[in-house]
Amino acid sequence: MRIFRYAIWLAGIAVLAVTVPVVRGLPVTSYGGVAPWRLWLEAGAALALLVVSAAEPCRSRRVAAGVAGATWLVPELAGWVAGPAWLATVADAWSRMLPAVVLAAVLAGEPRHWRRSVGALAMSGSALAAGSRLVLVDPFLDVRCWRRCDHNPLLLAHTTLGTTLEHLGGLVIAGCAVIGGVLALVDRRRARWPAPVGIAAMALIVGSVDPGVLRLVVAESATSAAYLALFVAAQSGAIALVAALIRARAPQWRLRMRLVRLSSSLSSGSVATALRLAVPDPELQVRYWAAGRAGFVDAEGRPVDPLESDPTHRVTLVKRREQPVAALVHARDVDGAQLNRVLGASLRLVLENEQLRAATLAELHELTRSRARIVERAALERRRLERNLHDGAQQRVVSLSLLVRMAAHRIEQEDAALALARRAEALTDATVQELRRVAHGIYPAVLSDAGLSGAVLDLAESSVDVAVCVDGIPSSRYSGTVETTAYLAVAAAIADARSRGASVLSVDGREHAGALVLDLQDDAGVATSHAVLDLADQVGALAGVLAVEPRCGGTRVHLELPCGS
Amino acid sequence: VRVVIADDAALIRAGVATLLQEAGIATVGLAGDAGELIELVEATAPDAAIVDIRMPPTHTDEGILAARKIRQEHPGVAVLVLSQYVETSYAMRLIEEDPAGMGYLLKDRIAHAATLADALRRVVAGECVVDQAIVGRLLARARQHSPLDALTSRERDVLALMAEGRSNSGICELFALSPKTVETHVNRVFMKLGLGEQAQGHRRVLAVLAYLRQGAP
Question: ipTM of this predicted complex?
Answer without folding.
Answer: 0.81
